[in-house]
């Protein structure tokens, strides 16, 4: 199956993707979402609208592709010296970012496409960050809980609140679920 949102490696294709993504971000910042049209993006990026349609299919798929790129972590989670403090620091930062207005917009873009283009990549990003924290803990001789348990007990319910209840989880809500997952690992 041909995934139109998947970037092709290197060369002209990479330059086009970079120019189109930059055009989307610039137009969003200047005009908001209402200013986003394929012709406007194509003009700003210096490509034809057909290039965008051929590569991404439609505006929703393009916005999802840009959102996934922006959701990709730029650096590994902070190393605070212990699994417990590393995980809590990451969770607090992650949910602060995801519940912000830009974070919610990116999540809507990813989930608002047919087949939820990019959702699997977002899951991979979360798992990679948690696994980086776990690997450091294992190297220190700690016994961290599994990524699946963290996602089930902490990430999933808080993401539900962000996406469906339009809540911004308070740090206290994150900490309560964090304690639940840490206690679940002790049993």
From TrEMBL:
UniProt entry keywords in alphabetical sequence: DNA-binding, Transcription, Transcription regulation
Ranges annotated as DNA-binding: 37-56
SUPFAM superfamilies listed in its UniProt record: Homeodomain-like, Tetracyclin repressor-like, C-terminal domain
Pfam families: TetR_C_11, TetR_N
Signal peptide interval: none
All residue ranges annotated as the HTH tetR-type domain in the record: 14-74
Protein name, as recorded: TetR/AcrR family transcriptional regulator
Phylogenetic classification of the source organism: Bacteria, Pseudomonadati, Pseudomonadota, Betaproteobacteria, Burkholderiales
């Amino acid at each position: 199956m041909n995934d139109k949102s998947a970037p092709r490696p290197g060369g002209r294709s990479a330059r086009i993707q970079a120019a189109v993504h930059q055009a989307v971000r610039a137009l969003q910042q200047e005009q908001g979402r209402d200013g986003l049209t394929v012709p406007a993006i194509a003009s700003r990026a210096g490509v034809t609208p057909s290039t965008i349609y051929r590569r991404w299919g439609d505006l929703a798929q393009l916005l999802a592709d840009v959102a996934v790129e922006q959701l990709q972590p730029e650096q590994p989670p902070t190393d605070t010296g212990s699994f417990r403090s590393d995980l809590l620091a990451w969770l607090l930062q992650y949910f602060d970012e995801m519940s912000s207005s830009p974070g919610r917009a990116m999540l809507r873009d990813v989930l608002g496409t047919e087949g939820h283009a990019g959702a699997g990549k977002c899951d991979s990003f979360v798992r990679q960050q948690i696994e980086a924290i776990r690997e450091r803990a294992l190297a220190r001789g700690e016994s961290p809980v599994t990524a699946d348990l963290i996602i089930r007990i902490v990430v999933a319910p808080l993401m539900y609140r962000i996406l469906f209840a339009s809540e911004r989880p308070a740090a206290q809500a994150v900490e309560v679920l964090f304690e639940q997952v840490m206690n679940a690992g002790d049993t």
